[in-house]
Amino acid sequence: MFTKVINSFVLAVTITFSSVTAFAIRSVGNGGGFAEMRVADLFQDLDRFLRVCLTPANVCTIANDTYVDWIKIYSEKPSDQNDYLVSFVNDLTDVNGFVLEGMNLKISHKMLYVDLKTPKSFGDLLAFVISVKQDLMASRLSFQENLQIASAIFKDLKIEELNYKADGASSLLSLSQLKVFDGVSKHLVMGLEDEEKTVNLSETLEKALPCGDLTEWTFNQWSSSVFSKTVYFYGSASAVCNLKHVEKRIMIKAALTTKFLVDEKSITANFFAQ
User: Fold this and answer.
1) DSSP 174-201
2) Are strands 244-255 and 174-181 parallel, antiparallel or unpaired?
3) pLDDT of 183
4) Where are the domains of the chain?
5) Is 11:31 a contact under the CB 8 Å cutoff?
6) What's residue 27's pLDDT?
7) Phi and psi dihedrals of 167, rounded to 5?
8) Is residue 32 within a helix (H) or strand (E), and if so which, with residue range?
């Protein structure tokens, strides 16, 4: 059973804030509960989850003005980075559940839990992190307004995340796979990530599919290699197309520039017989 420590406990995380979501965790303090660790992860990887809502398919059915607000978080480049110490504390009275004091961003435990033992849902925590980020970027709306919008969007959204690091790469280089269920239908968002960006692979995969659309396919058993400034991801793919079960092998290939950065124009995907 999960039990949250509520006394004499502070989880301190030093992260880098800028005009984007490229948070870099510098250090983690003396442990923490599930919700605290989830929020720390979301601060670091917020762009990965925003990408789910910013695809042309509009999986999250967000309004145009919200799309404009969130695309600013997702796409703006770093310009003025600062290290902030993020602390999760008990005695915070601010109505928004967080306060910035100099370089210290304090977040109340109460914003992360339904009661003393039950963490809030993934959607609620994601909505909170996005709203905090918007507030720190001087949003046109209040924190509470942004939180209400984000909470409604993520109320029924369930996300399963899988991440496969490239073997042989000395830095962050991986294939990410997000399975999204919005309460009605399922969606699949795949991306190729390096230290500076995430490249959406959905369009590339859609064009290469032997049949059906991307949501009908399941991908697993991924392996990888890096050779001669090129990264390769190999996996298994299956789907039911026209009432027939189809199984294929898949290879995703991309050229690498310096520091293991992905050359977006070089990405290809190919399916082969098993």
Assistant:
1) EEEEEEEE-SS-EEEEEEEE-SS-EEE-
2) unpaired
3) 67
4) 11-155, 159-273
5) yes
6) 31
7) -70, 135
8) none
Which among 226, 223, 212 is positioned nearest to 262, based on CA atoms? 226
Count of other CB atoms within 10 angstroms of residue 265: 7
Is residue 100 within 8 Å of 136, Cβ to Cβ? yes
Cα gap 152→150, rounded to integer Å: 5
For residue range 79-102, list pLDDT tens digits in order. Answer: 444 566 778 888 788 889 999 888
Residue that the structure tokens 């999960």 belong to: 2
pTM for the model:
0.61
Residues 6 or more apart from 248 whose CB is under 8 A from it?
210, 236, 237, 238, 271, 272, 273, 274
Condensed to tens digits (0 to 9), the pLDDT of residues 164-197 reads 899 988 667 889 887 777 666 777 878 888 877 7
What tokens were used for 213? Answer: 């659309």
Residues composing the chain = 274
pLDDT band at 2 (very low <50, low <70, confident <90, very high): very low
pLDDT for position 24: 37
Q: Please report where in the chains the tokens 């601060």 appear, as a residue.
A: 43
What Å distances lie between residue 110 and 29, 85, 154, CA to CA? 19, 19, 19
